[in-house]
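Reminder to self: tokens first, then the designed residues, so the page reads top to bottom the way the pipeline ran.
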């Protein structure tokens, strides 16, 4: 296991998911062209992702993860080695929710290695961003969502998950019920519950904490 680490200023470097994507693709004996067909993303873009020359949005990472029978959280976790103690600084890099090929925005593929930017750049009033708060393959995962987050897909995890609204407002659906949440509110979903959520204001900030999907149940 790794020893204590401190993200410091180096924490602003973008998560390097390329090697993990490549390993997973090769383990499933898929070519880039086959992965492109499964995801709807272009082979050149996927090649850039695997070589860490482009940083995929969370939406693209989810498409890639689906095609490789894994999750976006696992691909992010594979970017770092295990740590027994780890400090993730407030200026650590966030992953855009959209803005590359999956988001159909200009400038496909954000250049890797860029800084996390100021708090205003990390989603306040604009495109949403996701910041991993737990690095490496751990029993616990935690993500910070800032700014815009629209209805996308539904999620159902094998283990429990907790949502905490830090700022703004959220509409969430879980097990067929709808809830509006404000600052300080939480939503708990036990394993197997289908759920989804969206931000109702541009300055919304949400923490999601859960047990890693591949952690064996007790």
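Designed residues (218 positions):
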């Amino acid at each position: 296991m790794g020893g204590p680490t401190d993200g410091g200023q180096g924490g602003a470097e973008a998560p390097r998911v390329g090697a993990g994507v490549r390993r997973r693709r090769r383990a499933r004996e898929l070519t880039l062209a086959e992965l492109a067909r499964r995801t709807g993303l272009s082979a050149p873009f996927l090649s850039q992702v695997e070589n860490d020359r482009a940083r995929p949005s969370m939406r693209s990472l989810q498409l890639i993860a689906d095609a490789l029978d894994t999750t976006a959280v696992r691909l992010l976790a594979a970017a770092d080695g295990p740590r027994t103690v780890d400090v993730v600084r407030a200026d650590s890099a966030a992953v855009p929710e959209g803005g590359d090929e999956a988001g159909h925005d200009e400038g496909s593929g954000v250049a890797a290695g860029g800084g996390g930017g100021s708090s205003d750049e990390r989603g306040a009033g604009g495109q949403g961003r996701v910041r991993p708060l737990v690095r490496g393959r751990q029993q616990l995962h935690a993500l910070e969502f800032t700014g815009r987050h629209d209805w996308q897909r539904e999620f159902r995890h094998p283990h429990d998950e907790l949502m905490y609204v830090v700022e703004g407002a959220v509409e969430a659906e879980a097990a067929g019920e709808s809830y509006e949440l404000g600052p300080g509110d939480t939503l708990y979903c036990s394993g197997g519950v289908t759920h989804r959520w969206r931000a109702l204001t541009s300055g919304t900030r949400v923490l999601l904490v859960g047990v890693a999907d591949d952690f064996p149940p007790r």
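The two ends are 23 Å apart (CA to CA).
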